[in-house]
Amino acid sequence: MDSKPPSDKSSDKRRPRAPSIHLDTSAVTDHIDPHSSASSGSQDGTKLTTPAFGRAASSSSAASPASLDTLRPSTDGASDATSQKCFQLPSRESLEDLWRPLPQDEDLFTVAENPFAFSPGHLSRLLNPKSLKAFHALGGLRGIEKGLRTDAKSGLSLDEAGLTGSVSFEDATGLQLPEHPPDLSQGIQRTKTGQKMKRVTTHKETGGLYSDRKRVYGKNSLPERKSKSFLQLVWIALQDKVLILLSVAAVVSLALGLYQTFGNDEHQGARVEWVEGVAIIVAIAIVSLVGALNDWQKERQFRKLNKKNEDREVKVIRSGKPTVISIEDLLVGDVLMLEQGDVIPVDGIYIDGHNISCDESSATGESDLIKKTPAEAVMRVLEKTGPIEVKKLDPFIISGAKVLDGVGSCLVTAVGPYSSHGRTMLSLRDDSELTPLQLKLNILAGYIAKLGCTAGVLLFAVLFIEFLVRLKGSDETSEEKGQGFMRILITAITIIVVAVPEGLPLAVTLALAFATKKMTKENNLVRHLQSCETMGNATVICSDKTGTLTENIMTVVAGSLGDGSLCFAEDSVLNAIKSNDSTGAGTTETDASLFYSKFIQPSKLSSTIHEDLRVLLNQSIAINTTAFEGTEKGKAIFVGTKTETALLDWARNNFALESLEIMRSNHTVVEMYPFNSSRKCMAAVIKLSDRKYRIFVKGAPEILLAQCHKVIDLPTEGIHSSTLEQTHLDQIKGDISRFASASLRTLGLCFRDCDQWPPPRSKAHDDPSQVELSDVFREMIWIGAVGIQDPVRGGVPAAVEDCHRASVGVKMVTGDNVATATAIAKSCGLLKDGGRIMEGLEFRRLSNFEREAIVDDLRVLARSSPEDKRILVKALQSRGQIVAVTGDGTNDAPALKAADVGFSMGITGTEVAKEASDIILLDDNFSSIVKALAWGRAINDAVKKFLQFQITVNITAVMITFVSAVADENESSVLNAVQLLWVNLIMDTFAALALATDPPNDSLLDRKPEAKTAPLITLTMWKMIIGQSIYQLIVIFILHFAGPSFLHYPEDEQKTLIFNTFVFMQIFKLVNSRRIDNKLNIFEGLHKNHLFMLMATIMVAGQIIIVWFGGAAFVVTPLNGAQWGISLVLGFFSIPVGVLIRLFPDSWIRKAIETIVPRRFREKKAPRRAESYDLAAAMLDVRDDLAFFNRIRGGRMAFLCDPKFIQKRLQKSRSKSKSRRGSNASSSPVHPAVGIPGLIAASIGGLPSPDSRHGETV
């Protein structure tokens, strides 16, 4: 279509926007149509011609603000080459427009007594969108560094307190800041997009370290979300419609009672008709207060957990030394160190580094990987004349982005609510969503409430009809008739209150809150609540090896140098090698003795090898690493991954490795390639003193050996090398295999010298920053391999056994070779019952059907990549398994997301992995996963226990109230409204607290996981609910209807006895509900649940107080010893009745149901889902059928009419693909023939039309 000419845009009379350059520059270049260059003259679509870029503003510039607008790809169909604007020298008018506050952030530009050159508003112009114009106007990295009074190399001073003096904008940038009207607004608070941003003081200190920096730019934490006060929660609890209705009825009853008591002078004796109304109001208040207290405590608990979840440590440079600080202590002006896997917590400017690439999709919506350019390089490009390569210029670090590759550092320019991510998070603060179990229980509660409402309405209708019938001949006063009607109304409403299970959602919330708190103490930090529920039913755990099954305390204990002629090993390792190697190096004792004779003690290694090799090993280990030096308890340590610190400790202890800082200062690092799990190695390039370059690589031995063509042949005489022969390879691989058999993790070292960098024949030899490791990783010289010991954690074998006991499979996924993985798996107990061991490459090459066939039997996946882990998870899920998986690397994120429950490592895990996970293992220990499994089952059981208890009370309370009220001449229930509200308080709150806080016991792991389709209420639970309900109804009805004939108690004592018995049956039923299976030990773990005993004590004490002192409020009278005995004995009998019910076999009930209930009501036909149709499977069916056609010779198509022949010919091929066929799979071989024309038409239709190749350029 025709494009709109540029002149149309420039003619718009709109107010110019703040000038900036939108640096999603890949869109500028990558989205240009390939044919546009032919029609755009000689212009280059990736370059812009610019004049000299001076530092001072030129008043003579003719550039208008419109011409300095944000650089974006054209939104119409025209060629970008003709619509791009020139990046021109900013005029005074454009600078004024750049620094002019927008309505929503005008308060950020004025800071009282600002000792820095820039306000938060100035720095905010760097981003949103990314603006090179603002970057240049602020003086680039040097100007920002000076304006923030920091140093890009040494960072902030550890001694900085209050700053004296100030730096002006002009001092820092060389430009004069345009004048704007003063605005003395203070503070910052970002609400929703477009709303005004106000300043708040995030740090209230007036003195102390970094006080001015915190006052002006704030701390790296968002203002705490204002939580609801306790009174607000009480008010919310009172908004319940049923409680409102009951409150109105109670007020009317109170008014009538007060009139009867005080407005009528003719009555005799004490009359307390008003007490019932007051008691109901008090009961409503107590229910609301208790519910609000629970909500308040729950909110506080989850706030603490969220704060702990958000807290993490980052590495910064302060006073020239790497320092680890809390993320909340990051400040503007800090130099933040970036590593692969980091989630960037602040906005900043990229200082320098190696191959930093970021995923900014969460911040900008762009899915492309953005490679960062150092700020100094960007500034040099901007200030030179001629074409500007806009595609590469991106020095901006955005908060919320993920570092997917490289290492480097950035200068922090915005923190907390001033940063891009902080503003977004403030605008998106919402209440947390309900978990699946909460949603399921809410639905169930709705059904129960509807049944309760139906019972209440039916009761009201029946009693109201009786009331109307009796009105005609009644001699009661009008007040008494009104009070009688109100009693009917209140009884009906109270039934609804009792039937509505508001305690059901409370129970799961309390269970989750209690479990997450306890799980945190047991090193499981829960990020997503639903993961607790899911983990309880996990069927498979796919675990990493290093740090999870092992201790992650690594030590170099063995090694092979050069061609294998010199090896070292500790005695324990050598003994393990001997025990695993039955024949040694050969078939005779002489050969075996010769093999072991080349081993020396590690302590003698330094004096045995040549000095040049010692220097080479030190260089290889100390330079090719991302670790750094730190201190812990006054002792110098290495900070980094355990593998790298193990190598550094080995070099320091054996080869007198000097300080890393000195080592690195003596060698210029030209390029670094951080470890990547896909290539399984890392590399560093240094410049030597003779102007040559040396490349060091370390990683998986088989990967390195494949790229080596030479080997150091005499380790004791120097670093002389010779061609790597097959005999050398066999010797080296044999050594590595023996190390692996002793459960050692092997790591190879190699190097290569080259005369120039980049070396010849590399793909991007013109630009050193674009050289990939694959371009130079060849023709290496083998140095040697080391064996690193990482012992199995002490509790892991027992934890694996617990998983097997719980019918949960455990699979180990590791990057180690097969021999090492097998040895570790045996030590952990993973191979006790056999199982398959595979390499990741072999597993990856299997078809989906082959993979599903073996995945259940797979125990160890060695030499695997994160993608293999994700494929494993998907394969298991396709088999109906509920999968938990562990991960620590950035590339593990897809597997963690794909799994039903993802566990990330709290110690070694990257921030990307933690963000993708559901639970963080704070100690990286496999045993903690088993604890999470037990807690998950405990949560599900707690909800079911409460459900079993509450439904029983619902049934009995509603039935007793309904039957007794209908049978009574005065339409009054044996349990009045206040008594029922007390029962409701017991049922909803105290029982929820008691049952939801049961900790997991040993027997939880003695059963199989529940299926996803398992019902919430099992047959065993229904058996207990119905059995207990029948027992309670029989007891109450006998006491109520037959009791007066053999007990001969006064009416008030009789009713009090019934009320007391009913309550104690619920209390003992609470103890009985601690089991939801048929096991008889209901007291298991009771002594550990102190809250249960406290709640039971409160219920008993409350009932005693009510009976003795409740009087007119509860309409009770004190009972004597015999009556208390009857209540307690009948209540206690709930426990032996529960034993009898559990002894009754479930199979009898199931058989009775199958006999009585017709099959069509018992079996639900599964709905046919359209998404279950698998196109790939259909194509495979077509392939099988066409193969059948191919086998028919001579045109004997008449055979197709014979179904027996068809079945016989297709049976073999059909059996292989049976699992992939749905119910709609055709057995007719003619169907593919019918579909062939459609396939041909679709394939032809998918080709581009001839006209499209010669059409107009878009």
Automatic annotation (TrEMBL):
This is Calcium-transporting ATPase. Residues 36-49, 72-84 have a biased composition (Polar residues). This magnesium-dependent enzyme catalyzes the hydrolysis of ATP coupled with the transport of calcium. Transports the calcium to the vacuole and participates in the control of the cytosolic free calcium. Its main location: membrane. It comes from Pseudallescheria apiosperma. It is found in: Membrane; Vacuole membrane. It comes from the Eukaryota. Residues 1-13 have a biased composition (Basic and acidic residues). Pfam families: Cation_ATPase, Cation_ATPase_C, Cation_ATPase_N, E1-E2_ATPase.
